[in-house]
Amino acid sequence: MKVNYKPIESNDSKIFKAEIQETEKDFEYPWHYHPEYELTYILKGHGVRYIGNNIENFFDNDLVLVGSNLPHCWINASEQEQNVSAIVLYLKKDEFLDKTWMGSSEFGAIRKLLSLSDKGIKFDNSVALKVKEKCLTLVQLPPFERVIALLNILQELAQTNRYHFLCEQGFSSDLNESQNETITIVYKYIENNFHKKISLTDIAAEVSMTEEYFSRFFSKVMKKPFFTFLNEYKVNKACKMLIETDKQISEVCYASGFESIPFFYRQFKKFKNCQPKNYRSEYQKALM
């Protein structure tokens, strides 16, 4: 996907902006980056979330902190009748990290949290639920109280270890136009062909490269091998089917593009740290 620069419209505050996004126009924006840190809380809805070289499904109470200039986008599931509803906080990097106050020892935990956000941080649902009411209240508060509420939320997030990084090796938006176009072609090809076998010959030919050159190119740009990315994509397709359908595990395996059930189980365990059956049951328990 081509990465776009998204300007964040300013408001009265020189420190941060908070808003509730409820329409498709407000929520969905092409893969983009901006200098502001972004904290997004999904109140309602599901779809696919792209952060750097990571792709995952998102659902209600999805809470993610995106670092400055880290490319990202959330795509609403096409079959949904209702739009996604989200609270989005934009922290203006230079202004918020002003050394005269954020450089103080009192804000050490928050500074560390923001530095780690370059990798993209996905907080556990239990953490998200603890700050949900604070996020909802924040957008209704007067300016001064809003800043205090923001600091309380960030401090709480900075003190938990219940999260995981989305881009362990980091990711840069500094791609030239040619690289952008190539990655866009790769994404589209995977999207249209994930359900069948994709060979290195196929994908290399799609972008007019030799197999060896494409492998080096993709690993350098995306910070992971092509087939690792492809299997991760397929596993996330499988997760969506496990949640939204009653298909047997074997049906999900083949429908998501895997040719072998044992290999499917290994890849699912690798990316989700659990087995498909457990993933489905844990999600169903969360809805009770």
Question: What does the model show?
Answer:
The strands form three sheets. The chain has a six-stranded antiparallel sheet with strand order 2-9-4-7-10-11. A three-stranded antiparallel sheet has the order 6-5-8, with helices on one face. It has a two-stranded parallel sheet with strand order 1-3. It has helices spanning 24-27, 93-96, 108-116, 125-138, 143-158, 177-193, 200-206, 211-222, 226-244, 249-255, 261-272, 276-287, and strands at 4-5, 16-21, 32-33, 37-44, 47-51, 54-58, 63-66, 72-76, 85-91, 121-123, 163-165. By secondary structure, the chain is of the alpha+beta class. The radius of gyration is 20 Å and the shape is globular. It folds into two domains: 4-165, Jelly Rolls (Sandwich); 177-287, Homeodomain-like (Arc Repressor Mutant, subunit A), CATH 1.10.10.60. The longest helix is centred in the C-terminal third of the chain and has 19 residues, at 226-244. The mean pLDDT is 86.
SSE topology:
Elements: E1 4-5, E2 16-21, H1 24-27, E3 32-33, E4 37-44, E5 47-51, E6 54-58, E7 63-66, E8 72-76, E9 85-91, H2 93-96, H3 108-116, E10 121-123, H4 125-138, H5 143-158, E11 163-165, H6 177-193, H7 200-206, H8 211-222, H9 226-244, H10 249-255, H11 261-272, H12 276-287
Parallel strand pairs: 1-3
Antiparallel strand pairs: 2-9, 4-7, 4-9, 5-6, 5-8, 7-10, 10-11
Write a concise synopsis of the structure shown.
With 288 residues, this protein is of the alpha+beta class. It has two domains: 4-165, Jelly Rolls (Sandwich); 177-287, Homeodomain-like (Arc Repressor Mutant, subunit A). The chain has helices at residues 24-27, 93-96, 108-116, 125-138, 143-158, 177-193, 200-206, 211-222, 226-244, 249-255, 261-272, 276-287; strands at residues 4-5, 16-21, 32-33, 37-44, 47-51, 54-58, 63-66, 72-76, 85-91, 121-123, 163-165.
